Amino acid sequence: MIKIGIVGGTGYTGVELLRILATHPQAQLTAITSRKEDGVPVAQMYPSLRGRVDLAFSSPDKANLNECDVVFFATPHGVAMAQAPELLANGVKVIDLAADFRMQDVAQFEKWYGMEHSCKDLLPEAVYGLPELNRDKIKNARLIGNPGCYPTTMQLGFAPLLKAGVIDAGNLIADCKSGVSGAGRKAEIGILFSETSDSFKAYGVAGHRHTPETVEQLQRLTKDKVELLFTPHLVPMIRGMHSTLYAQLKQEISQEISNEALQAMFEEAYKDEAFVDVMPFGSHPETRSTRASNMLRIALHRPGNGKHVVILVVQDNLVKGASGQAVQCMNIMFGLDESTGLLHVPVNP
Amino acid sequence: MIKIGIVGGTGYTGVELLRILATHPQAQLTAITSRKEDGVPVAQMYPSLRGRVDLAFSSPDKANLNECDVVFFATPHGVAMAQAPELLANGVKVIDLAADFRMQDVAQFEKWYGMEHSCKDLLPEAVYGLPELNRDKIKNARLIGNPGCYPTTMQLGFAPLLKAGVIDAGNLIADCKSGVSGAGRKAEIGILFSETSDSFKAYGVAGHRHTPETVEQLQRLTKDKVELLFTPHLVPMIRGMHSTLYAQLKQEISQEISNEALQAMFEEAYKDEAFVDVMPFGSHPETRSTRASNMLRIALHRPGNGKHVVILVVQDNLVKGASGQAVQCMNIMFGLDESTGLLHVPVNP
Amino acid sequence: MIKIGIVGGTGYTGVELLRILATHPQAQLTAITSRKEDGVPVAQMYPSLRGRVDLAFSSPDKANLNECDVVFFATPHGVAMAQAPELLANGVKVIDLAADFRMQDVAQFEKWYGMEHSCKDLLPEAVYGLPELNRDKIKNARLIGNPGCYPTTMQLGFAPLLKAGVIDAGNLIADCKSGVSGAGRKAEIGILFSETSDSFKAYGVAGHRHTPETVEQLQRLTKDKVELLFTPHLVPMIRGMHSTLYAQLKQEISQEISNEALQAMFEEAYKDEAFVDVMPFGSHPETRSTRASNMLRIALHRPGNGKHVVILVVQDNLVKGASGQAVQCMNIMFGLDESTGLLHVPVNP
Amino acid sequence: MIKIGIVGGTGYTGVELLRILATHPQAQLTAITSRKEDGVPVAQMYPSLRGRVDLAFSSPDKANLNECDVVFFATPHGVAMAQAPELLANGVKVIDLAADFRMQDVAQFEKWYGMEHSCKDLLPEAVYGLPELNRDKIKNARLIGNPGCYPTTMQLGFAPLLKAGVIDAGNLIADCKSGVSGAGRKAEIGILFSETSDSFKAYGVAGHRHTPETVEQLQRLTKDKVELLFTPHLVPMIRGMHSTLYAQLKQEISQEISNEALQAMFEEAYKDEAFVDVMPFGSHPETRSTRASNMLRIALHRPGNGKHVVILVVQDNLVKGASGQAVQCMNIMFGLDESTGLLHVPVNP
Question: In this predicted structure, what is the pLDDT of residue B198?
């Protein structure tokens, strides 16, 4: 059994970790910290966990995280980098669901997250936790920067085409849509029911933190300079993310490449993946087809004049886009079958 | 392994059976019938099942349901009673999720369902599949009438008080609210998104089929004459059912009985139940605390002058209110641990 | 033109007043106060008002409310009673959308609202602003306590039967359901989209502030002692309120009174009302049939054994349940046609 | 007063016409046809119209549409072209909300709508009813093809840049999102609440009817060849449309043009328009800021490397995207002030 600690278990990625780990056959939930909720049973805050999670929140001082095998940080940015060094020194592995260890480029981190990086020396060994593109490094990692939700869809959607060199890396457009849970569990007017229901909007169009993270990773896949135009939107639904990706085929390639060849690139890339489903060419995946599961689905289109490939990617932002992916990394790090505890069938309807 | 057939797998209770059975360790999905979708892979109709259910729908004629150990009917009323005799004769157990075998009172059935009952001779052995009140009979049953969604909440909510004889059986009021999936997967204007979203209404106030079913069962618990006023409402949510039950305490009892004593009746009644959660007195259960799980939660209140007990009951109408309950019955009928394959943690948020 | 001031225009009842008054032919919006948003154009906070409301918020100190003809308080409880005396002394009429002047029973007010009433001497002249039951007093009022949203539906639903003396006043049950906007525009986790969407719950079952307000008013209609069991619920919709009212017919009356006679009581009671629609007996009104309008609709049912009348009442909680009703009062107070500026056709779908 | 007929008043654009015309000071509703609902009062089908619209549906044969001044067709494609000739011959003006008279290119029409165009001889005089780009022709038109909902946003969003010649007309991308009411009021499983709520998807990515209509119109604004990649999506909301438009600046222009200059193009283009609101540069318009109103709002962004302009456009798909626009055309055709009867303040929240 893997002894597991969770720092910051009161947010949505925290409670989603609990939902997943409560039925994970190798997980032993050992400590969940929350300064504010010290002593409160987790199931009192989240009645959905009544009878399934017996733990109470404990103040960070009291929780003996050093006795865990792995600690997940489901905290705001900046917390993991303060606590990771001591944990690692005590032989505890660390998986951060926030951004502290996602980007190697410190300047970009500090620019976009508005804080100094207090733990730069650990960055070189931090591993970006996207198994489908980085599995080998995850195996031996002590410290994981778990990908952002949007970046997961953008990378898995663009990767096969970028690697194959068939698209213009300098002109990527990602029009992405997220459910409201992606904004977290915070007392903010902007995410009230009455402010977001029955409406739709873009946000952060001028620039979003997930752009530099995604570009840094995509750049590893090609020698061409990657330029990404990323537009996030807020959808009146709780869970779910839909990314509509526009990739312009290189001119010479556009005239000769078949749809079948494009489809084959994706099927080949993901043929051994448990959590990436390449749907038949021309499909329209719905976010609900991944609801409450670790699946990510991809479908290709090539409309109109054939110059663009449109890649549709859906996932549950709280699972494959956050907590499920973190558990997937844990499974890899501890030598378990990668899908252990993650085979929830999507909830539909 | 239990060989399982599903008749009518294209509706919501059908696909929910598939979701549950796909991870049930003793279930072997053997046949799913649909005349209209003959030959179509189930996962093509329900992409949420891609990679998890390999079966294709088959026409009822071709499906060899007689080789199954149990057949679930997730069909409109009237189908199961036509096919059950042959299946039973071949040693196949039958669990009907529709109303054909729920009521012993044929006249009531025919009045409310507008069809003749073609299989009256099987009614005496049909068992009402509410495990918490009828477990012993389910154990040895060949033929189960799986309860309606509303009746499940009304019975489990009123039962402890009725059995204890502390309330006026002749003045039960049930104000119940259901998610739209309860109306099924039918091409009807009344359940379109644009007709039901951002709105709320009652329906069937003059009379609803679930009243006679519930009264027939509640009457078994008391010698007093049961009279039930049941008002169903439609909530703009997919899954979930919330029943607000009003029970008037008998006058002499009202003055002496304590809240603790009332609470104790419920805790005692359900202390060994895996799927009934009696919450602390005064709780306000949310339907989402049961989402996509087989849990039903109950909380008691005694407002104002103390003459009434208000019982709040929540469940997922498609799970404990339908397909989960059916699998719970199957587990009992086949001697499995009752919670086998049913321990999904509710999905929250 | 009526010069109008609004204190606290940043909440939902405030912006709804603005929506209504922006097209009211006799309204001259003169001042809107908000300490926090001083100087900010209203339309910057609410882009829906761009080009339609030119005013900016001003700090309460700067706003010359004393020059207005009427001031609406769309504030939390306690604000109006602090400012009303000075305004009234300056000849300004006051309409409070909060609870300060709704109840004559100070002890009840102080118990339920947890604050001392600082303006008891004005209470005797305060008029309860429910036009259909209190029109004559409103005509000459200087100070209006605008009814709560739930109480509006409960009073208009029970009133005809209580006045006629046909129901048991001591056993009224009101099972009410409100859209989330009723909880206001506050940064609270409990009303986030991800906490309330796709779910349903009751709240305040042990006791709610709207009970004593409603009982105080209903008691005026009958000599029998009124006892009310009121259960509020939260519906995942923005606007809308649906009250399901259960009235027990007096035993002797139950056996002889016809449905037609009951229906006639309602039709007679509201035959001259512009904003109360008595639908055909047995109708199922939907909240959306009143969306963004000042209409309230009522339908009667008499299910089962005929001992109860079930009254269904729907309204838009922000219009007839709050700001529309306040403008209706204003129209009466200033001698205008009562429906001036209030004839919005409900938005459907 | 203008005598008005509506053919096909049972769908969403029909009932929205009724909502608007019921308070239009110059409109006299004269006839509403529906073969299926012959004799049924409109307000029985749409209780939101109780007390506001007295008309009953009448069978097309009985309705004397020839006595109207104008007839709106809120019907499926193909109906208007069958009936328009006779009406026009009788001096009745025609506004078709379907596609029959939107496109001059008959081949494109027949390809995308799958029917022969039975009224080609009227096409030359048919006027495309987008007032902001075509006002002069609308003034004298007898026959209007009212624009599609998506095309309205795409044209008003791209037009100023295309006219100015600063963008690459051959590489327009429109990622558009619509509320479910855009799919109409039809008994189809795909638009049930339980199929569309809490989910998001693209549809018609391979090709959508609104592409050729939009290209035909955009092509009139520029000599460069217009190529448009249009991707529609379905949002779980009733009303509202959000188009995210990506325009690539011509390379030489990209380096020198300022954001202010781009913004000025839009402000200049729409400075006299009552229903187009150019928001401050960098705004994020929400669809709800136009809910139930005829407003369309536009905001510009220029993220990242500055090579693209991102234009955000929102409207209510049933108003500016359909019925409101049709009434706007009617106002122009009959010499009324263009905003007569159309100044509804958007409903928010």
Answer: 98
